[in-house]
Amino acid sequence: MIVNQWVPAAHKGDAIGDSARRVRGLLRDMGHQSDLFALTIDEDLVDDVRPFADPAARQGDLTIFHYALPSVMTEAFASLPHGRVLQYHNVTPAHFFAPYHAGIFRLAQLGREEVTTLAGRTDVALGDSEYNRQELESWGFANTGVFPIAIDVERITQAPRRPALEKVLNDGPLNFLFVGRIVPNKKIEDHIRLAEVYKRYVDVNYRFIFVGKTDGVPRYYDMVRALIAEFQMPADRFWFTGPVPDEDLATYYRTASVYLSLSEHEGFCVPLLEAMAADVPVLAYGSTAIPDTLGGAGVQFQPKDLELAAELLGELAYNPSLRAQVIAGQRKRLADFGDTRIRQSLTALLSGAPAPAAPRYGVPS
Q1: What local confidence, expressed as pLDDT, does residue 359 receive?
Q2: Per-residue model confidence as pLDDT tens digits over 230-239
């Protein structure tokens, strides 16, 4: 069988593109012909990803279209005669961007409007989380299911060590880590407010580290920096690294005491699984797809009570028994996203059967 995948842009290190390439490898191992096609391709991927203009892009027995933003691929996908599999990675609601960037606000609006035009024009509609699947269903999509992102945790677990960076990061303060773009839905300002509460009531020995692009929404990043200044916090307690190579990323995970997510909109959230792979306890505000991805692992809280979050952060940092219990639950959950599960989901997809559901694991909260 020919199983093609479409992604609007192929960027190395992008969760969607990385997942698509991993799925392609599994499909080939299963004996299928499979290629990945993109509208724009990074220079270091030109020998690995084929251009969407190639006629072969439209010749699959099955075509998996990874939707995360509006593009000409949407209508081309709808016009295919058969085998149309939509994989929806969610589009951040536009209201998050309204105070900061009119262009991204409009792009987000268009993205959410455009995906709804595919209702009734796909053969299968998959979310990479139950949250995303329910959103598809609310828009009128039929034959929905869940197909998780395929992640490569070896880029974290097998990355070479960086002794110089490890030495800097192990200089005393506990490291509380966030990985992802510095954009409004991630609620980085709540990390800053949490730091103020943590400092007052729990411990002064802390450092919050943010690994990811800071230039996507400049006005938002400026607001976050202004908040740090308003609280008169020492600048060295907040690191904004920008994008980093895999070896450095793995080092940030290895030296983190807790992985922290206060995001208010996620379609999946790959860094949660990367933190699990590095045996870093996860503390997360339980919004949108976060409960689906964690599946009962980690420590989640609702509503967003920052005094409670500060207390939980201190417990995860300093309570060895709790840390061990949480890490054990996270290891079990991580196994649900391994190649065995993805192969089962692919087999079900190719046979037309629903994908098997993943179990959930309860841990202390």
Answers
A1: 45
A2: 999 888 999 9
Residues 6+ apart with CB under 8 A from 355: 126, 145, 146, 147, 344, 345, 348, 349
Measuring CA to CA, which residue among 237, 239, 275 is closest to residue 259?
275
Per-residue tokens: 19? 């997942």
Distance set, CA 172 to CA 106, 168, 211, 257 (Å): 44, 9, 19, 12
At a CB cut-off of 8 Å and minimum separation 6, what does 93 contact? 108, 112, 185, 265
Please calculate the CA angle 246-251-252 and round it to the nearest 5 degrees: 100
pLDDT of 25 higher than 70: yes
Q: CB–CB of 262/299 below 8 Å? A: no
Closest to 224 in 3D by CA, of 238, 245, 234: 238
**What amino acid is encoded at 87 in this protein?**
Q
pLDDT score for 360: 44
CB 283 within 8 A of CB 258: yes
Predicted structure pTM score? 0.93
For residue 7, give the nearest of 30, 31, 36 by alpha carbon. Answer: 36
Q: Closest Cα partner for 258 from 176, 157, 364?
A: 176
Q: How confident is the model at residue 352 (pLDDT cuts 50, 70, 90)?
A: confident
